[in-house]
Amino acid sequence: MRPFNRGFATAVFLFVACLLPAAAQQPWDACQMLRQADVEAAFAPRKFDKGSLAKDPVKRTPKMAAVSTCTYVSAGPKPSDVFTVVLTARRAPSDTSGVTPAVAKDGAKKLNVKASPMDVSGLGAGAYWIDLGSKAFPIVELNVFSGPRVWLVFSGGGMKVSPDVAVEGLKKIATATLPRLP
């Protein structure tokens, strides 16, 4: 049996330690999570563009959450035919710095005092939707939480899509997106 090689063990430890921060800092890309095919399937027969990632995603630091936003737009012959789907994905730097469903719901109520968050089943604890738009232009947000760090906000808005249809479509894309979380 060979004697324990302290130098080799130290080298292996340092190598693995160098890899860990890189893994923890893997890209947080909302367009990798939410795909065009999922958006088109959820809102068929509409066709959407390839999706665009916000120009300056927020990178995670020890004190700041990573935030990435991806937008898909379905154009139409008239401006009133346009429908937009957005995913804003937030990953907190620690389990204690994540946004809880209760805090998110309270914030949503403050944004639109006339609307109330409606719980959604099948998408994890705390999932809810809220209509933040108007009768003429509904904007629906579906909020989904994955563990203490991840908060996903799926939004859909357009003049010719009712809130009920938007919520059902957003639930479909949330279901497709959750397994892709890095």
Molecular structure report:
By secondary structure, this protein is of the alpha+beta class. The protein has helices spanning 6-24, 30-33, 36-42, 101-111, 163-177, and strands spanning 52-53, 66-74, 83-91, 118-119, 128-131, 139-146, 150-158. It has a single domain (29-180), classed as Protein Transport Mog1p, Chain A (3-Layer(aba) Sandwich), CATH 3.40.1000.70. It is built from 5 helices and 7 strands. It has a 7-stranded antiparallel beta sheet with strand order 1-2-3-7-6-5-4, with helices on both faces.
Query: Would you identify the CATH architecture?
Result: 3-Layer(aba) Sandwich
Order of SSEs? HHHEEEHEEEEH
Strand residues, percent: 15-25%
Counted by DSSP, the helix tally is 5
Q: Stretches where pLDDT falls below 50 for ≥5 residues?
A: 1-25
Q: What is the average of the pLDDT values? A: 84
Class per helix and strand makeup: alpha+beta
The profile of the biggest β sheet is: 7 strands, antiparallel
Spatial gap, N to C terminus: 41 Å
CATH class: Alpha Beta
Number of E-type strands: 7
